[in-house]
Structures are given as structure tokens and as C-alpha cells.
Amino acid sequence: MFDNDILMQFRENDAFICSDGSRYKYSEILNFSQQISNSIPTRSLIFSKCTNSPGSIIGYVSFILSRSVPLLLKRDIDEEMLRNLIETYEPEYIWMPEEDFDDKVEGEVVLNFLGYSLVRFSTDGKTVMHDDLAILLTTSGSTGSPKLVKLSYKNLESNAKSIADYLSLGEEERPITTLPMNYSFGLSIINSHLTRGSTIVLTDSSLMEKSFWSLIEWSKATSLSGVPYTFEILKRLRFSSIDLPYLKTMTQAGGRLSTELHREFAELCVERGIRFFVMYGQTEATARMSYLPPEKSLEKIGSVGIAIPGGEFHLIREDGERIERIREQGELVYEGGNVSMGYATTLGDLRTGDENRGILFTGDLAERDEDGFLFIVGRKNRFIKIFGNRINLDDIEEMVRKVVPECACIGKDDKMTIFITREEMVMQVKKFISSKTKLNQSSIEVCFVEFIPKNTSGKTLYSELK
Questions:
Q1: Cβ neighbourhood burial of 193 (10 Å; 0-12, 13-18, 19+)
Q2: Does the pLDDT value for residue 119 go beyond 80?
Q3: Alpha carbon distance 318, 142 (integer Å)
Q4: SS3 assignment, position 177
Q5: Which pLDDT tens digit goes with each residue over 337-374?
Q6: Quick one: DSSP state of residue 105?
Q7: How far apart are CA 98 and CA 113, in angstroms?
Q8: Rounded to an integer, what distance in angstroms lies between the CA atom of residue 378 and that of residue 147?
Q9: DSSP-derived secondary structure for 399-435
Q10: Which of 111-125, 166-180, 318-332, 423-437 is least confident?
Q11: Of 183, 190, 258, 289, which one's alpha carbon is 20 to 30 angstroms from that of 163?
């Protein structure tokens, strides 16, 4: 992906522009990374609480260059969930904002750097991990499941190169951070642009803050990315009336964009000469698997496009046979160098090699049109996406059962409904799940029912709840 030679090639370029006006060159990334790497034994397991800041990203780069393995986490991860992950995986270090370190953190600060602290835990020994393992990402959005996606160095390199190729990225690009770097989509933006010597505009400000729009204008940012909820906010903010002459590219992933929003932004981008990319991906494929070329954005509304360079799609029936006919639905299967090594649920899983062998059964149902463009029509499993976060409905049920024993959870993108059998607990459950997942309460509905319908085997009949 990126190594010392690539970073040295762009050493005089600005790698980061920050909201306070500070700038960091690629040569500084190398120097700073070396200082961090000197404090960490190679192949260490490091938990990293992420922000869109120089300290967070330079820490990540140093971990990659020194072949240590970071697990990228939200900065505001629930403390109970963090303890669960620490107990499961026994990391040697945690990389965290200096101001987050307090008496509750059981460890020793060995380095303070660019607003971040490297904290060493007391562990019995060094974690043994497979040589190909590069990073770990959470798989259930904000629900804190110990199930992790294992990504290799090959995965990161393959996906970053593919994205940089189909987006035609170069040194002149200036993307602004609208997504957290622990989210695979947000991380892929960082990876792909660093490989091409681009300048990343760093901010944790939201689109609702005036400071974000001041920064995007001052920094002359050239690209803006987001999940469907991002585009809903942009519409509410009357984005069409905002003059951003330097903006040349907009990209969308993290869930299906509504037909209305797809058409509206595609038309706006055509009018302004902005490239509008609709994309599809999963963490298990490092980030992205398909893209809709901008010239097809109006002709193929609702499509996720075609496979990224180096990737290939198949549709299969339930019997495993491939589908060749147009408009016939089947499970979407992807092949490519960016398919992850597999999952980890225990410490021992970090030692295992590539279990997927480049093939990913996405769990999504799709169909092809006469031109070979893909359209996602549904999901086989029980995952939904809320504001770009992938949520496992079974994980949510496990959380709710800590408060109410009898419950069931269903949902669709950007809306989750929880059924419970205790009427007086409705608001308490809503607040509890919102606090645990960090999801806005507007995306959570809690309903009282007399009983949870089940079959003779005791399995919940979700169809009756719909």
C-alpha cells in the first residue's frame, strides 16, 4: 500500500491540512512514524481510538510501516465494550488521545505525541499473529461485537490501488474527512489518497457545523464523500445553493441511496461538472467492490455499478449454480485481492491465515441488467445499515435482553424496531440502546407487544412482527 519509498516520493507534498491551519508534509509523516515505531516492538497488537487528526493517522501509518497490527476503534466506544475487547484480544498497547487518559486506564504511558498517548498494558506475553495480518476492523458498526474482520497487507494494497485507479487520484486531490477513519469507507479514503501523494483535509466537525463549511472553502477541498444520511443532510442544508468552485468529485457508499437523492445529486453534479460516484462495499472486502461511473449516474439510477479494477462479481442461486440471465435475482458473490482473510472472535483466530481465499459471499441479493450493471434488491441475513453503520440485529437483541428478557428486533436501512413485552420499559430500552450504540434515538423505535411470536422450535417469527 504505502511504504517508505512511496512516502519519500511525495516528501515535499502536504499530506494533511488541519482545521487550525497547520500542515504536515509527507516527509514529516515518515519522521514522526519512525519516532512512534521506535517505541513499539514489531508485530505488537495495538488498540487505536481513532479521530480525524494527525496524531491518529500518523500513528496508524507508523503501525503499518513497523508491521504492528492496529484494531481501529471509535474514540467514544462504550467502556464496557472496550473492556470486553481488551479481555478477548489482550493487546500490548492502546493509542489514544492524551486527554482520554485517566485513572480508569490500567496501563503505563510510554509516549506522548501529536496529542496522542501510547499506553502499554501489563500482558503475560506477546500476541502471536499471522504474518500477513495488517489491521483489524470491527464488523458490527457501533454495536461493539468482539467479531473482527482481519485484513492483510495485500488486501489494503489491492483496494487502495483499485480505488485510486477508478477515481483517477493524483497529487492535486484534496479530500475532506466526513467519515471516521475506523470505518472502512473512511479508512479507504485515507489509504487511497496517501498512495497518490494527495493532501487530506482533516476535521472531526460535522456537516451541521459552520466550521466545516469554512474549512472546505478555505482549504479548497476537491472531494466530498458520505453515506446516504450525509446526502440527506446536504439536501436539508440546501447544498445546491452553496458555491464550492474547487469541488470536483463526490462519492457515496455505506448503504443504498434513495432514488430521489440519487437523481437529485446526479443532476446537480452533471450541471456543475462534478464527478458523482455511487459505490458499494463491505468491510469484509476492505472497503469497496463496485462503482457506478459518473457518466452513467443518471442512466443507471439505483445501480451500484460494476466491479472495481481487479474484482469480479457472480450471482448464484440457492443451489449454488451461477445465474447468467438478466434480471434474475441471486446472492452476490465477489472475487478479488481485497477480500479479507476472514473473521476473528478469539485471540487464537489472529494466528490463522486466509480462510476466504479471495471469495466473498456478500449476503446481499442482486440482479444484473442488460448492460451488466448490478442492482442490490435485498439482504439474505440480518444486517441493516443505520447512517452508514452496519448493525447486526442479533447483537442488538443480546443487548436488549440485559434489560428485558423477551424481545425481538427487525429493521431496514436507517430504521430499527425493537419489540419488548414490558410496556413500562419502552423509553428505558430506547435510551439504553442509543447510549450503547451511539445511534441517534430517531433511528430507533421501541414497541410494546403482548408476546414475541415463536415457532414450535422456539425461534422468533420475525415475519409476524413486520
A1: buried
A2: yes
A3: 31
A4: coil
A5: 999 999 999 999 999 999 999 999 998 889 999 999 99
A6: S
A7: 9
A8: 23
A9: HHTTT-SSEEEEEETTEEEEEES-GGGHHHHHHHHHH
A10: 111-125
A11: 258
Q: Which is more confidently placed, 454 or 5?
A: 5
Nearest-angstrom CA–CA distance, 253 and 389? 11
What average pLDDT score do residues 437-452 get? 93
Cα separation of 302 and 375, whole Å?
Answer: 7
Question: What separation in angstroms does the CA of 374 have from each of 289, 300, 338, 371, 384?
Answer: 11, 9, 19, 9, 19
Whether the per-residue pLDDT at 457 is higher than 50: the answer is no
More confident residue, 457 or 32: 32
DSSP character at residue 321: P
> Cα separation of 316 and 365, whole Å?
9
Separation between Cα atoms, residue 406 and residue 194, nearest integer Å = 49
Q: Which residue reads 428486533 in cell numbers?
A: 409
Adjacent-strand bridge partners of 410 = 417
Cell of 91: 493487546
Give the Cα separation of 140 and 269 in Å (integer). 32
Dihedral in degrees, nearest 10, Cα atoms 17, 22, 26, 28: -160
> In 141-294, at which residue ranges do the beta strands (DSSP E only) sit?
148-152, 200-202, 223-226, 249-252, 275-280, 290-292
The conformational region for residue 221 under phi > 0 = left, psi -120 to 50 = alpha, else beta, is: beta
Instruction: Identify residue 337 by its one-letter amino acid code.
Output: G
How far apart are the C-alpha atoms of 370 and 120, rounded to whole Å? 56
Residue 243, classified by CB atoms within 10 Å of its CB into exposed (0-12), middle (13-18) or buried (19+), is exposed
Query: CA-CA distance, 66 to 442, in Å (whole number)?
Result: 43
> In the sheet that 275-280 helps form, which strands lie side by side, from edge to edge?
223-226, 249-252, 275-280, 290-292, 306-307
Task: Categorize the per-residue pLDDT at 378 as very low, low, confident or very high, splitting at 50, 70 and 90.
Answer: confident
DSSP 311: -
